[in-house]
Write a structure and sequence with these properties.
The structure holds two protein chains of two kinds. By secondary structure, chain A is an alpha/beta fold. Chain A has a single domain (about 1-245), classed as P-loop containing nucleotide triphosphate hydrolases (Rossmann fold, 3-Layer(aba) Sandwich). Helix content of chain A is about 35%, strand content about 30%. Chain A is built from eight helices and eleven strands. In chain A, a hairpin with a 2-residue loop joins β9 (about 210-215) and β10. By secondary structure, chain B is mainly alpha-helical. Chain B has a single domain, classed as MetI-like (MetI-like fold, Orthogonal Bundle), CATH 1.10.3720. Chain B has helices at about 5-15, 15-50, 60-75, 80-85, 85-95, 100-125, 130-135, 140-150, 155-180, 185-195, 195-225. In chain B, α10 packs antiparallel against α11 (about 195-225). The longest helix of chain B has about 35 residues, at about 15-50. Chain B starts with 5 loop residues before the first helix and ends with a helix. Classes of the chains: A alpha/beta, B mainly alpha. Chain B: Keywords: Cell membrane, Membrane, Transmembrane, Transmembrane helix, Transport.
């Protein structure tokens, strides 16, 4: 479903010099799985996620999602391809001046849906995330967990095949975290959406991921597999992460 | 000079009622043209200034530098000097250098970069992540500008427009004195040159009321639009 091939991304440091956030990395995420990207701060996991929908363009290497070679697409073709890749953010990034329903409608508006179809789909998505009674509220009137549910509904609205989640629970308390993780797992199970989730918590990997890539200094150290909420790992780094969790 | 009674002052003012009405219309015309130019030209310029900043959608150092320099250049001119400098251009555009429409030319010239800066500053308050989310959803630059930037900044934009309107009410008085007409011009002609202080006081009071009304309306509208 998602193929990253030898992607490399470097950033210019404010004080000069370069920082290699992702080093010549290849990764394959299978259709229908929940795939985790885990590592410490600065390991390159968020950058790697943002390379998947080209929010960051790799300096070298190629990105293919759902058969589409994103790195080779024109600007307008890339915009169309992105409508098939939902994204959920740590800070929610909802539009403050739009109601919950209008936030969820946004990706459908830009994709050119008919108003009647938009209304029906927004209602459906509100039901899926359990916020039907909040449709006409504004984001400022919601709790963090509710905002993230709106974020998930918005990502889900255009029926994407892939959802990218960038630390979706890091701004939330443990109880809300679990309900958001359950929500993502539910969406994956019901609709077969492939989910890639960035986290620094082994708990997240254990509770919903099928597999995960452990990252360190911009490279994949190990691919972890999860069976019955047990993570099997070989590397010392993975073992140390499992111990703290 | 004979003592002026309050009744006499009121009578003088009511004799001037047609002139006051005319002056108010002229001020309205100068402001209307200046603000329209500011919104239609200064607004897009402000958006461009914002979008060409480093890290934004159309980040471009040279374009941003040149635009910023031009805006600063026009804004450096004291308004009265800008007005005099633009006399030849005004003659070409309007065919005359007196009257409210002629005065609207330098007013527009000053209002465009002023509003552009206000718009740029207002847009900076939108969290980058919100724009990024729209990009991730496949929004085009035009959709991002209209549906995200302008909509998210709408309360701030109304406040900016309020500031602009009040500043330019004052500028229009300056433009009025050199042939534009308007409330400020009337105050100077009667209140200052003819020593009719009651006209000066009445005109200043009129401006005070207008400013208070504009600010009140601006605040109300901004508060209503702001859902943050």
């Amino acid at each position: 479903m998602i193929h990253l091939k030898n992607v490399h991304k470097r950033f210019q440091k404010p004080e000069g010099g370069w920082f290699d956030a992702v080093r010549d990395t290849s990764l394959h995420v299978r259709a229908g799985e929940i795939f985790g990207l885990i590592g410490f701060s600065g390991a390159g996991k968020s950058t790697l996620l943002r390379l998947i929908n080209l929010l960051e363009r790799p300096d070298s290497g190629s990105v293919t999602v759902d058969g589409q070679p994103l790195t080779a697409l024109s600007a307008s073709a890339l915009r169309r391809a992105r409508q098939n890749i939902g994204m959920v953010f740590q800070q929610f990034n909802l539009m403050a001046n739009r109601t919950v329903a209008a936030n969820i409608a946004f990706p459908l508006e830009i994709a050119g849906w008919q108003q009647a179809d938009i209304d029906a789909r927004v209602a459906e998505c509100l039901d899926i995330v359990g916020l039907a009674d909040r449709a006409q509220h504004y984001p400022a009137q919601l709790s963090g967990g509710q905002k993230q549910r709106v974020g998930i509904a918005r990502a889900l609205a255009p029926r994407p095949h892939v959802i990218l989640a960038d630390e979706p629970t890091s701004a939330l308390d443990p109880k809300t975290t679990q309900s958001i993780l359950d929500c993502l797992q539910d969406i994956n199970a019901r609709f077969g959406v492939t989910v890639v989730i960035v986290t620094h918590e082994m708990h997240v990997i254990r509770s919903i991921c099928h597999r995960a890539a452990l990252l360190d200094a911009g490279e994949v150290v190990e691919i972890l597999s999860v069976q019955d909420k047990q993570v099997s790992a070989q590397s010392a780094l993975a073992k140390s992460l499992l111990e703290v969790a | 000079m004979e003592e002026l009674t309050f009744a006499q002052a009121l009578a003088n003012l009511s004799d001037l009622a047609p002139e006051i009405g005319q002056a108010s219309l002229e001020t309205g015309l100068m402001l209307g043209i200046g603000l329209t130019a500011a919104i239609l030209l200064g607004g897009p310029l402000g958006i461009l200034l914002y979008l060409t900043q480093p890290g934004q959608l159309f980040a471009h150092r040279t374009v941003n530098g040149v635009l910023g320099w031009l805006v600063n250049l026009v804004r450096s001119f004291p308004f009265i000097i800008l007005m005099v400098s633009l006399v030849p251009l005004t003659r070409v555009l309007v065919g005359s250098t007196i009257g409210p429409i002629a005065a609207a030319v330098p007013l527009s010239f000053a209002a465009i970069p002023y509003f552009a800066r206000l718009v740029e500053q207002t847009l900076r308050e939108i969290p980058r992540g919100v724009v990024e989310a729209a990009e991730a959803m496949g929004a085009s630059p035009a959709q991002i500008i209209v549906k995200v930037l302008i909509n998210e900044a709408r309360a701030g934009l109304i406040s900016s427009l309020t500031i602009l309107t009040i500043s330019f009410l004052s500028y229009s008085a300056v433009a009025g004195v050199v042939g534009g007409g308007g409330i400020g011009d009337l105050a100077i002609r009667y209140g200052y040159y003819r020593f009719q202080s009651e006209v000066m006081i009445a005109m200043v009071l009129l401006l005070v009321v207008i400013v208070q009304l504009i600010q009140f309306a601006g605040n109300r509208l901004a508060a209503r639009l702001d859902k943050r």
